[in-house]
Structures are given as structure tokens and as C-alpha cells.
Amino acid sequence: MEKWSLMTIAVLLALTVRWAVSLGSYSGAGKPPMFGDYEAQRHWQEITYNLPIRQWYFNTSDNNLLYWGLDYPPLTAYHSFVCAHIAKLINPDWVALHTSRGYESQPHKLFMRTTGFQCSLHPALPRPHPYRPWALPDKVANIWCSLSVLIKIKNVISPRTQLKLSFAVTFLSLLPACIKLTVQPSLRGFKFALVSCALSFFLFSFQVHEKSILLVSVPVCLVINEIPFMATWFLLVSTFSLLPLLLKDELLLPYAVTTPAFLAVCLASFSILEKTSAEDLQLKAFSLALKGYTSWFKSFPRIVRSLFLLSLSLMGILSVLSAALPPPQRLPDLFPVAVAVVSCLHFLLFLLYFNVVILWDSRNRGQKKIS
């Protein structure tokens, strides 16, 4: 009973924080003609309510795909459809075809926040939106955007070749985890494979948006009890990688409050700095496989803690610089690019780590197989 009481308090506290954050600004507020992601979500309600299903994804006189065309899978479209019917009951102007474009009001903001309130508790939310890093000036923390600092790939190879390259690298990067899960299926292995595969798609996919890192954060939350230190570290980096978007939407204050609060909760709840041994990080089997190098693992906890503190310091410095200083005129994207590259380097290390945990996990052999 005590366990359920603590869980209830934790959930209510998290929901309270989530709602408090929602009182802040939103993407594209008062910025015509596109108005940002907020308008995209509202417009999809307008489209799904007023148009037949067969027209939702096609360009018509009533559905200009250049104005926030619906580009999410059908399940999301039906979610917008349900929300639109509720919006219609409250205020028909919110979803009126054509005339509701750019609609903004406090009651509507409350409604939109409520529809998104159900999503999750992670401080980096809300919701992802797919764009194309090859073509658009997004500063995504994946390998392709980070490599563009050194070499403009789109100027070297054709779009078709880019697509094939992206597919090949993505497939190869997720193959080890998938093979291990197939050979030794288990619930634990499945959770870690989810993390590895989601991270592979984020890092190497042809089409990805900054907020797609949230699709990795969700499965990471599933393993936070097993590897609290690395999971906390990953979730902090994933939030940091969204800093340019948060600054763009004037969400610096929620970022500055919730990120340290999340770290403090993890320090208090999981004692993460005390769980940095090879065994705590699920790397004991890997260390034994190295045989002659096992002595190096005696200093492993100290090295990991030092890297963690260095990482926090670097993210803190970049956050302050991004928020407080204007970029040099010759390098207007200096800070967003720096955030993307630093985050990408972290994610590559995390991908390596999760694959090592998966491939050297001997405990899967003794677990009951998934039927």
C-alpha cells in the first residue's frame, strides 16, 4: 500500500510540473504566416474534421499540403480527428475550414495544452515532428548534420545515393542488437534493443527532426531502474539537444528549471553517482571478456563520474552561451551547430554502450523466452 502511495504522489507531482511547464510559450506564437508547430496541430484538427478521410493526405483546394500538410501516420490523424470533435463542441471557430488558420486565444491554448497533457513526463517533451536534415537547415544531433560541419554531403553525392547510404548505415547499426534478440529473446533484451534500434534510426536515418530523440527517450525510461546512471545521463543529453528549439519557442525558463530538477530527483531517487561500477553499468561480462584489461576497470567508476561531470559542465556552458550571447556575425549558427555536434558525439557513445550491454548480456540465457 505504501508503494502505491509513493507512486501516486510521484505521478501527481510529475503531472503538476508538466502542467506548469505548459503555461509557457509555444511554437510560432503570433508569428504568421505559418505560426509554428502549435498551428500544425490545430490545422490537422481542422483538416481531419472537415475533410473526408481520402483527402487527408492529398493536396486539394481545401487541403494545401504546403501549409502544414498532414505528414504523420493515420493513428495520429485519428487522434487529431477525435480532438477536433471536442474542439467543435467547445468553439466551432477553432476548427472552421480555412478561416481558423492562425487562431490564437487563451481558451484555445488551454485546450491544446490539455490534448497534449496525456503524452508523457520527460522534461524534453512534447511531440516530435519529422523534417529532412539533408534539405532543411535543421541542426539535428545526428551523424549527417554533424558531418556537414566538415563536409557537405549533399554537394558530394546525389539524393538517391544519400538515401541508399542512410539505409545501409541504419540497417548495419541496428543489426547486432536485432540478431542478439532473435537468438536470445527476453523481455530485458527487448527493452535494450528498443533503445539501440531507436537510437540507430535517430542517428543515421535519411529523414529525422531534432524532436525525434524523444522516440529514443521513451524506451530509455523503461531501463532507468536497471541502469539509472546511464539512463539519467542520456535523458539529460536528449533534453540538451533540443536547446535551439526551446530557445526559439521562448522556453528557456522551463528548460532551466526542469532539467536541474530532473537531475536532482535522479540523484536523490537512484543515487546515480554511486552506481558507476562496471557491474552497475551492466558491463561486468564485457570487462571479463577483455581478460588482461580487467585491471583498467578498477578505476572505471572514477573515470565515468569524471566524464559525466565534464559532460554536464559542457552542456551547462553551451546552454548559457546560447541563451546569453549573440553569435558572431560570420557564424550565425555557431551555438546550434555546437549543441548538435556535442549531442551527436554523446549519442554515438551511448549507441556503442547499449550495443555492448546487449551483446555481452549473459543473463538473457537464463531468462524465460518470449513466446
From TrEMBL:
The alphabetical list of record keywords is: Endoplasmic reticulum, Glycosyltransferase, Membrane, Signal, Transferase, Transmembrane, Transmembrane helix
Q: Could you name the domain of life of the organism this protein comes from?
A: Eukaryota
Q: Name one Pfam family in it.
A: Alg6_Alg8
This entry's Gene Ontology molecular function terms read: dolichyl pyrophosphate Man9GlcNAc2 alpha-1,3-glucosyltransferase activity
Do you know which InterPro entries this protein is assigned to? Answer: Glyco_trans_ALG6/ALG8
Main subcellular localisation: endoplasmic reticulum
User: What are the subcellular locations of this protein?
Assistant: Endoplasmic reticulum membrane
Q: State the signal peptide span.
A: 1-22
Spans through the membrane: 165-183, 189-206, 213-240, 252-273, 307-325, 337-360
Q: What are the GO cellular component annotations? A: endoplasmic reticulum membrane
In what pathway does it function? Protein modification; protein glycosylation
For membrane topology, the record states:
Multi-pass membrane protein
UniProt keyword Signal present:
yes
Write down the EC number.
2.4.1.-
Instruction: From the UniProt record, list the reaction(s) this protein catalyses.
Output: an alpha-D-Man-(1->2)-alpha-D-Man-(1->2)-alpha-D-Man-(1->3)-[alpha-D-Man-(1->2)-alpha-D-Man-(1->3)-[alpha-D-Man-(1->2)-alpha-D-Man-(1->6)]-alpha-D-Man-(1->6)]-beta-D-Man-(1->4)-beta-D-GlcNAc-(1->4)-alpha-D-GlcNAc-diphospho-di-trans,poly-cis-dolichol + a di-trans,poly-cis-dolichyl beta-D-glucosyl phosphate = an alpha-D-Glc-(1->3)-alpha-D-Man-(1->2)-alpha-D-Man-(1->2)-alpha-D-Man-(1->3)-[alpha-D-Man-(1->2)-alpha-D-Man-(1->3)-[alpha-D-Man-(1->2)-alpha-D-Man-(1->6)]-alpha-D-Man-(1->6)]-beta-D-Man-(1->4)-beta-D-GlcNAc-(1->4)-alpha-D-GlcNAc-diphospho-di-trans,poly-cis-dolichol + a di-trans,poly-cis-dolichyl phosphate + H(+)
Q: What class of enzyme is it?
A: transferase
Function (record text): Dolichyl pyrophosphate Man9GlcNAc2 alpha-1,3-glucosyltransferase that operates in the biosynthetic pathway of dolichol-linked oligosaccharides, the glycan precursors employed in protein asparagine (N)-glycosylation. The assembly of dolichol-linked oligosaccharides begins on the cytosolic side of the endoplasmic reticulum membrane and finishes in its lumen. The sequential addition of sugars to dolichol pyrophosphate produces dolichol-linked oligosaccharides containing fourteen sugars, including two GlcNAcs, nine mannoses and three glucoses.
State the PANTHER family in the record: DOLICHYL GLYCOSYLTRANSFERASE (PTHR12413), DOLICHYL PYROPHOSPHATE MAN9GLCNAC2 ALPHA-1,3-GLUCOSYLTRANSFERASE (PTHR12413:SF1)
Family note: Belongs to the ALG6/ALG8 glucosyltransferase family.
Please state what the protein is called: Alpha-1,3-glucosyltransferase
**Protein source organism:** Hirundo rustica rustica
